[in-house]
Amino acid sequence: MPDSFGYPAEVTLDEDGRHVVSFPDFGWGATDGATLDEALAEARDLLRELIACTMREARGLPDPSIPSGQQVLVVPPVQIALKAAFYETFRGTGLSRRGLARKLGVAEGEVRRMLNPDHATRAAAIDRALRLLGRRVIVSVDEAA
């Protein structure tokens, strides 16, 4: 299970001079921008969608590789990172959604919403659920790229 959800991205220039960004750890998907800043902003949105799609398809998220000197680290929006942490923790428990709901003391529908990457869930609710499952959220603040 990944313990961080920042992924290295490769940035190349296409024949029109646009910056193309892809995520080797996922093996699919790309985006671009006229400038590097625009491409990296689009990359953040793409990373959110790559994580969400993986969750929707009930597959495991890849462990982020260590960025090479040519790659840049892209960090997804906080909400999807929290959802991904909860999703991966849930996958590791072997519990059913019903069993997880019992353990958390919530309705099964609430667990479904918490696991849905497209449904907004309060950070405090995910934090509480992760703690009940033996995990914790650690927030760090870093220099912007």
Short key terms for the protein model shown above:
145 residues, alpha+beta, 5 helices, 4 strands, 12% strand
Brief write-up:
43% of the residues lie in helices and 12% in strands. With 145 residues, the chain is α+β, with helices and mostly antiparallel strands. A hairpin with a 5-residue loop joins β1 and β2 (19-22).
Gross morphology is elongated
> What is the overall number of helices?
5
How large, in whole angstroms, is the Cα Rg? 17 Å
Poorly predicted runs: none
Please report the distance between the alpha carbons of the first and last residues. Answer: 25 Å
The averaged pLDDT comes out at: 94
Strand content: 5-15%
Strand order of the largest sheet: 3-2-1-4
Q: How would a crystallographer describe the biggest sheet?
A: 4 strands, antiparallel
Determine the structural class based on helices, strands and strand pairing: alpha+beta
Q: Please tally the β strands and state the result.
A: 4
Share of helical residues: 40-55%
Order of SSEs, N→C? EEEHEHHHH
